[in-house]
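tokens incoming
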């Protein structure tokens, strides 16, 4: 039997942005309809500018549907598992500075519990 020794995580935190797109003609809302891709790009740039990118730091990732469309656009930060509903780049900047850099959750942007599709 091999005993696994826990390793230090490669990244301290991950932030995943839902970039899912649905058919507007069918009346289906999606994060992509709310500038999610621009927010993802802005976050990636802000993380790099703050010196937070790279091994042992922060990784900004794209994600498909995270199944919380009603709160969208949506992003989630791990390992804490904090879900955010954001509106604009000012919200993204606040998440980067407060949560990703300083470990403090931005309470005003936390997606309410139970918000799903």
């Amino acid at each position: 039997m091999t005993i696994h020794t826990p390793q230090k995580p490669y990244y301290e935190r991950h932030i995943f942005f839902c970039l899912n797109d649905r058919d507007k003609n069918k009346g289906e809302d999606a994060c992509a309809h709310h500038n999610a891709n621009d927010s993802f790009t802005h976050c990636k740039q802000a993380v790099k500018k703050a010196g937070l990118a790279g091994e042992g730091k922060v990784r900004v990732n794209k994600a498909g549907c995270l199944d919380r469309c009603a709160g969208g656009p949506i992003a989630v930060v791990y390992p804490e598992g904090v879900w955010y509903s954001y509106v604009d780049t000012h919200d993204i900047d606040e998440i980067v500075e407060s949560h990703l850099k300083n470990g403090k959750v931005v309470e005003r942007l936390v997606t309410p519990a139970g918000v799903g599709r």
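note: Helices lie at 36-49, 89-101.
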